[in-house]
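User: Structure please.
Assistant: Input sequence and predicted structure:
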Amino acid sequence: MKRSGIFAKSAIALLGSLILAFGLYNVHAVSDISEGGQLGLALLLQHWFNISPALSGLVLNIICYLIGWKTFGKRFLFYSAVATLGFSIFYRIFELFPPVWPQIANYPLLAAVVGAVFIGVGCGLCVRIGGAPTGDDALAMSLSQVCNIKIEYIYMISDFSVLLLSLTYIPLRRIAFSFLTVILSGKIVGFVQRVKFPKRAK
């Protein structure tokens, strides 16, 4: 691939990571709405088995990225590294400032919808160029490729499974809004991944 193509895809990965980090910090983190998946599984393991998310998250990420590397190769690892590093840097920058609109926590339905848009667009851009900002995305991309199933359905199955298990310690009302954001964000990821943009006339 030409350098210009690599730089362009890396820029898209960084843009996706920026959108993802902004949404997680300014919406999900203040409204206690979960995305399920790996984060939800790490919290579940912490609650029932007292395993720190620092350890479980690291192990789960390594496993998911190894699966992604086996499926997509070195290019996947490169763009995933760009997306993951970009996400960490952007999230740390956002932490230096207060949330843009903390009152969104008082409107859980709005938070679920707005949060889904940020997650869906951010992850969708990264997935579109062949990278994964989190282990969840790496696993979803790999299973979608191997099983020939649309990626939004892979997200839904994994997220729904974790959210259902989370009912063992999280109130039903809170989980209900998490289900909504999972459905919407998965659909948006699939749309952003597959939508065809009009080509510029030469």
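The CA atoms of residues 10 and 82 lie 7 Å apart.
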